[in-house]
Design goal:
heterodimer; A: mainly alpha; Rna Polymerase Sigma Factor, Chain: A; Arc Repressor Mutant, subunit A; 2 domains; 8 helices; B: mainly alpha; 6 helices; 0% strand; elongated
Chain lengths: 173, 137
């Protein structure tokens, strides 16, 4: 189990951080998910751990969004300090290079920025399908929606990403 | 309704440089996480594993206590003896408020209705007398 957690923790943290935009909240969600998995599903076959873990994480993320919504409604006058995640990289060096401004670093930070701009569902769908390489069925099970919805979210996510990259002249088709 | 092949074709068309660049960016971001973030993640993992181990240990200790208690020789003898005593007492218990048996003469011979009426009157008078006595006391 420990090996599995070591293997998955960074990506899971990344997903949680993308969804919440906060390092502390991402760690909380990650910890809750890990505890739940280890406590309740340790006896399950190891091949089932990955979808189970992501399902737990998705549920936690959904709960977090609900709490945030209620909190924002109740304490509408309070403005939280917006923690920037992922932290923007210092591009001073790349800006100074004469030959090409679109360095790899810049492209990568731009790609992450585009991903951040997707809706939470599209974002999570993209991360699960494309980055984690899960199947449509597994993603649908994790996101607790139909396979058709997963396909739609994924298609829209890719289309938006492509459009944003085209706008930013990062890629041309 | 869209056929699966059409969907796959569309995805294939879009699944090109844009997706790859985002995936590369994500991989790069994961591989270049800050040291303090990595240590935080490791701490969270250790905490989760410790908590689950503590829960497992607590469960195990409860089961162990029960097993030890059940295997105790005093319990092994005492519990069956106590159960046997309770069963014996409950089976042999005789109530003091048992119903008095009917006189044999009443059961054996046919009693005329007048005698029954007289008997009922007698019972009533006896009951009345008892009540009066208890009221006086």
């Amino acid at each position: 189990m420990e090996a599995f957690l070591i293997d998955i923790e960074k990506r899971a943290y990344h997903m949680a951080a993308f969804a919440t935009g906060s390092h502390a909240d991402a760690l909380d969600l990650l910890q809750d998910s890990m505890i739940k998995l280890v406590t309740n599903y340790q006896d399950k076959p190891s091949r089932e751990w990955k979808p189970l873990f992501y399902r737990i994480l998705q549920n936690r993320i959904r709960d977090w969004h609900r709490h945030q919504k209620v909190r924002n409604l109740l304490f509408f006058w309070k403005k939280d300090e917006i923690e920037e995640w992922p932290p923007t990289e210092n591009n001073e060096n790349s800006l100074g290079t004469p030959e090409n401004n679109l360095t790899k670093k810049q492209q990568q930070s731009a790609a992450l920025e585009h991903l951040k701009q997707l809706s939470p569902k599209q974002q999570q769908c993209f991360l699960l399908r494309s980055w984690e390489g899960l199947s449509v069925a597994e993603t649908a099970d994790i996101m607790q929606c139909s396979r058709g919805s997963v396909k739609t979210h994924y298609f829209r996510a890719i289309s938006k990403l492509r459009a944003k990259m085209e706008d930013g002249h990062e890629i041309t088709f | 309704m869209k056929s699966p092949s059409k969907y796959e074709d569309k995805i294939k068309v879009l699944h090109n440089e844009s997706v790859q660049s985002v995936n590369d960016a994500l991989d790069h971001s994961v591989s270049n996480l800050a040291e303090n973030t990595l240590s935080d993640i490791a701490r969270v993992r250790a905490l989760a594993l410790n908590q689950s181990n503590a829960q497992v240990a607590a469960k195990k200790s409860v089961v162990d206590t029960c097993v030890t208690w059940l295997l105790n020789p005093m319990i092994n003898i005492g519990v069956p003896v106590a159960v046997a005593v309770i069963i014996a007492v409950s089976v042999k218990y005789v109530s003091f408020e048992t119903i008095p048996e009917l006189p044999l003469a009443m059961m054996a011979t046919e009693v005329p209705n007048e005698d029954f009426a007289m008997l009922e009157d007698l019972e009533f008078v006896t009951w009345l007398a008892e009540n009066e006595q208890s009221a006086l006391l």
